[in-house]
Amino acid sequence: QRRVRADPQSQHLPTTPSSRFISQRFQLRHFKRREDLLKFYMNDNSIVTAGDGLKGRSTSTFLQIVSGEGITSLDSLLVVDIDLVTDSQMINGKVELSETAQRMMKQDERKFISMFGTHYLRCVVRGGKLILLVKIRSHSPVGKEQLDKEMAGLAGTLSLKDEAQFRTKMTKLQTLGTLDWVLYTLGGTVKPPETLSLLQAVNFALKFPSQVLQQDEVRELQYLGYWLLPSVPWSFSTTVSSYQQYTVEIMDSLTDIRGLEDEVGNLKNLRSSQLTWITRNGWKEIGEVESETKNQRKALSSQFTSANIEKFKDIGKKYDGAAEKLKKELTEILKEEKSYEMGEEVYLYNAKSAVYVGQKNYQGYASVSKTTPIVIKMVPCPYHDDDNDDDGEMEAKYRNSLVTIQSP
User: Fold this and answer.
1) Which residues, including other chains, have CB under 8 Å from residue 397's CB and lie 6 or more apart?
2) What is the pLDDT of residues 57-95, one digit of tens each?
3) How far apart are CA 408 and CA 406, in angstroms?
4) pLDDT band at 251 (very low <50, low <70, confident <90, very high)
5) What percent of the chain has pLDDT above 90?
6) Is the confidence at residue 385, as pLDDT, over 50?
């Protein structure tokens, strides 16, 4: 994915940094799930349709970072978002295709699209963007629920001058658990170091607005479709629509593959906590699915960005259903890992405290032990029907085979 930068000289747009902000926003946002975070920033800052135009914004890199982060279902997220706009310039005046471009469009609209695309640049927005993503992992769903309540209390809108309040909130955040964070910036005279403490990240964020005033960046590009120009026949929009269908199919496949890659990543992040029952061989097979998923994503992305538009249909067909096939393989692996043969001996084990349900008991209740676990055998569960008097005999038959564990 490439960041598109405008050529200010060719577009006759000013590049001198502004002495003030046209708009500024300083917010702390709380997200319970990674999916909520991705959805918010995809809708607000990714490539979005705008009538007959497009808007390309500057947080695609941040979304890639988030997608690669080891965020699990037990993570709570807080995002520090500083959004600054220094300049917004429309390309004014009458816009027309050159004579060469008009002749090519009349002769072959598909060739024109291959050469010049489907939209032209209409507006350039400059400024800066800083996103500090902080995550805290809980040990249980109950603990996460309580943590989310406390983190939600830190969310809100601040002024760029509210340094003391911002520091107070971040200090409170540090008391809630073990923190991991990642910092993304666009614009500014100084780039953040690759490794920095949370305090250093906070200090960097507070100085960031003044840096953007000295060095802003192109942070949003707005485009309009060629078919809106007076000299362009309406048939051109129909041609564009025919290619758009294939583009949507390719992006759907890419999204599904990326989603499966994230799902495998979530499994790996839970390996030592919630998924200790998966065997070493099972993890090996899951790793093979992960490798194939990454290969599929890289291949599809490479072909989509480098191929001529005439190849889009074939690319879409080739990868249609690829994610579903790999998902089926993953489901079968997990299903196999969960199954036990009848008569196989198993134990009840608490991965968090590293103890088993023990053989000894205390006043009729089960005890815990690290050395003498109780053996449980997998046996068929008898069918029970309250209206069938013969069930009592069936239950009695199996009662001696089952281990009953009472809890206080």
Assistant:
1) 382
2) 555 566 666 655 567 778 899 999 999 999 988 877 788
3) 7
4) confident
5) 28
6) no
For 276-408, list the strands marked E by DSSP: 345-346, 349-350, 355-362, 365-369, 376-377
Query: Tokens in use for 389?
Result: 């008097």
Question: What is the distance, to the nearest Å, from the Cα of residue 208 to the centroid of all Cα atoms in its chain?
Answer: 25
Question: CA–CA separation, 356 vs 363, rounded Å?
Answer: 18
Q: Which amino acid is at 86?
A: T
Burial 362-383 (b: 16+ CB within 10 A, else e): eeeebeeeeeebbeeeeeeeee
Six-digit token pair at 177? 């658990």
For the chain, helix, strand, coil in percent to 5 are 45, 25, 30
Which amino acid appears at position 209 of this protein? P
Q: Which residue has the higher pLDDT, 286 or 389?
A: 286
Residue-wise pLDDT tens digits, 189-228: 988 888 889 999 999 999 999 999 999 988 888 888 888 8
- SS3 of 361, please? strand
Specify the 3-state DSSP secondary structure of 101. helix
Which pLDDT does position 379 carry in this prediction?
54
Q: Compute CA distances 21 → 54, 84, 88, 127, 150, whole Å.
A: 24, 7, 11, 8, 33
In sequence order, what E strands does 187-264 have? 217-225
CA angle (274, 278, 284) in 5-degree steps? 125
Nearest-Å Rg of the Cα atoms of the chain is 29
Spatial distance between the Cα atoms of 167 and 149, rounded to a whole number of angstroms: 20
Tokens of 35: 């999916």
12: exposed, middle or buried (C-beta count within 10 Å: 0-12, 13-18, 19+)?
Answer: exposed
Burial of 399 (0-12, 13-18, 19+ CB in 10 A): exposed
Q: Binning pLDDT at 50, 70 and 90, where does residue 406 land?
A: very low
**pTM for this structure?**
0.59
Cα 52 to Cα 308: distance, rounded to the nearest angstrom: 23
Q: CA-to-CA distance for 217 and 85, rounded, in angstroms?
A: 9
Q: Is 313 exposed, middle or buried (0-12, 13-18, 19+ CB in 10 A)?
A: middle
16, amino acid identity: T
